[in-house]
Amino acid sequence: MDWSHVKMKIELDDVESIHETTLTIRGSRRRTTVPLEIVEFMKLKNGDKIRWVALKNGTVFVTKAK
Fold first, then answer.
1. Among 19, 25, 27, 33, whose Cα sits 20 to 30 Å from the Cα of 11?
2. Helix-strand-coil percent breakdown of the chain, rounded to 5?
3. Structural domain boundaries of the chain?
4. pLDDT tens digits, one per residue of 23-39
C-alpha cells in the first residue's frame, strides 16, 4: 500500500495495531469489517456508532461516536 501522500509522522511505539480490511460495494451499500482487535480496543458493542473524519491530506480518523 502506498502511503507516500500522507504527511503525518507516526511513532511505532504509539501504534496499538494495524489491520487492513476489504470494502464491499453493492448498489448503494458500502460495507467493511471492523477487525476484532479494533472492536476490543475501542470497546465497541452492537449498535454503537463510529465517526469517520476525513482530512484534505487523505488521512482518515475513526472514533467511537458519543
1. 33
2. 15, 25, 60
3. 12-64
4. 999 999 999 999 999 99
